[in-house]
Amino acid sequence: MSRTLLGHLGRDARASWQALGRQVHLTGQAVATRVQQMVDDGTIRRFTVVRGDLRRYFVTVFMDTPRFDDFEAFLQARDEVESASKIAGEGCYHVVLACEDDATLETFTQALLAFGRYKVASEMRRVKD
Predict the structure, then answer these.
(1) Which of 21, 34, 47, 62 lies in disulfide reach of 26, CB 3.0 to 4.6 Å?
(2) What's this model's pTM, rounded to 2 decimal places?
């Protein structure tokens, strides 16, 4: 049931609990309860707006030091960081930046040098949300 509900939320997160309930054969109150349970257990992590007017950059970070806690605190403090993940494979972290201009990217990458090296790729166009 949760997967079905998540699928409907993914297509239209603005739908009312009652409308979602009709689609998954639950009452509106039951939908609200299930959604709250998924928030509490971490299945749903955040409610957000993805702005289409911002430039997105994908930054792979290669740490030079094992200061992972400091780096993660740095990421948490930066408004332009849309998401960040510790990764296995090439690099140590994958960071998605949402920037209004190139100066924001420049400021971020300069500050990033305190932790290690990086490579940047830029989004050309979004093909799926």
Answers:
(1) 21
(2) 0.69
